[in-house]
Amino acid sequence: MFAWLEQELLDAEAEGGLAFIISHYTPNQCQHQFGSRYRALMERFQSTIRFTLHGHTHTTYYEVVQSYSNPGTPLMLANVAGSVTTYSVQNPSYMIIELDQETMLPVNMYSYALDIERANAEGHPTWELIHDYKEAYGMTDLSPWSMKALSERFLSDADVAAEFTWNQHAQRGSKPTEVDQKGLYCLTSSSEMWEQHECLNTELDGLRSKHGLGFGMWTLQGAADRLVGSWIDVSFQN
Question: Which listed residue, of 53, 134, 224, 236, carries a Cα 20 to 30 Å from 140's Cα?
């Protein structure tokens, strides 16, 4: 799979082309052996890949792909869109992404949703714009650095974290009064399973390690990692 993807990206690079990557699963839900290889490809082809689109979670958020070779440097936006599927904890939603015509980079993202309770009461659905990133969070652009800065605001500003969490679920119910700010920061500022695990389980007082924190042998995730097998070769010397 990765040999095919790498070749496709090499071909696009050779032709001076650009690429979007669309997948069902989000990057940080892949096993480490897959996710780390994928993250390395995102860094290698950062000039070719404009951004990536994902689903599966049915919620609206993002992941910042950060550099292996320069820890702390954000490279790319991995956008996770909501779903029109009805679900108990969120409203159906969809997203419109505005792109720059020349660079094909995302300029802004708009989420539309229908209120299930209102639709049931009125007998028909009404799709409405519920938020756009730049207006909702006071952003000037959606660059990787700006998205990383938004993630950092989740740690320091509980109101912004609550607003984002509410929008994450397409404004189902009332805006939350309590939010796991660190969890939201780690979710959005990482794009690989071990990277997120390290963020959640260490003090946020410096740069993360290049390769994240593995799961314990006797945990379910640790057992799954060992079952898949370590078929990647990682150097810790650089």
Answer: 53
Q: Please report, for the chain, the start and end positions of each structural domain, with discontinuous segments joined by +.
A: 2-228
Tell me: the pLDDT tens digits for 134-167?
A: 999 999 999 999 999 999 999 999 999 999 999 9
Cα separation, 193 vs 30, whole angstroms: 7
pLDDT tens for each residue of 199-226: 999 887 767 777 788 888 888 888 888 8
